[in-house]
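Researcher: Here's a chain I'd like modeled. Treat it as a single chain, no partners, no ligands.
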Amino acid sequence: MAGRGGYQPPARPAPVSGPGPLSQRTDGGPGQPKRDLPNPAYGEGQDFQEIQSGAKMESAPGPAGAGPMPQMPPVTGLGEPTQRPGEPVTHGSPSGPGAGPEAAGISTDFRQQNELDASQIAQYLPSLQAAANRPGVPPSFVRFVKYLREFQG
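Model: Modeled as a single isolated chain. Structure tokens:
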């Protein structure tokens, strides 16, 4: 140690600290590399760089193989023309023209799913009935327990 008291920077800081007895100091080492925003609006890029300059950054590029950040597709604004002119607005909806929810793998047979859920929940019916008989229980819970009793019986 160079001296006593005050901040003592570690000689070999760890990039990530381990748990418990394997922990090592992580301060004093290289920070993260500076990044660029993929599609900044006017002035945002400079603001982003200024914010990063306040943090401790690594001087060299990121770890080997990290590569550039992936480019996200631009967001289409609400007032912009459509990017899919041949696709109806109701595509993916259970009503209207276009493919329904099944095109996205969403089941529209809610009755079958509700019956499956009710049969699995019915095993808890004795506990649920005891809770439904307590004072101050919401009527919706009492109706739910009644529905389960009718479904089971």
